[in-house]
Specification:
The protein is mainly β. Strands 2, 4, 5, 6, 9, 10 and 11 form a seven-stranded mixed sheet that branches. A four-stranded antiparallel sheet has the order 1-3-8-7, with no helix packed on it. The radius of gyration is 13 Å and the shape is globular.
Length: about 130
Amino acid sequence: QVQVVESGGGLVQAGGSTRLSCAVSGGTFDRYTIAWFRQTPGKEHEKEHEFVGAVSRTGMSTFYGDSVRGRFTISRDNAKNTVYLQLNSLKPDDTAHYYCAAGVNGGSRTPASYNYWGQGTRVTVSS
């Protein structure tokens, strides 16, 4: 059974940085494209998870959502079965629950394309 566990996050000042980690176990890690999504607290019923970014199976390719491109960076370490999301130049609008998801269908920005999800970790950006 595949398990996805996020860690990191917490309270960060605007303009600051933090790093999230996503550990995947129980499957063949390098089969999966790994994506990050986020959802604003209190707005869970308004829209689906916002796509943040994703990294290909090899780590050679990454792509990002428009709101984070240039500020956030995704990387992966296949030896450690872990993906990282580096968040820089944080803004209060980045406050959200951040979710990591693994899927065998690469290249998608759609939550439904990802088979396995973590419980999420919260990032709060203070102004």
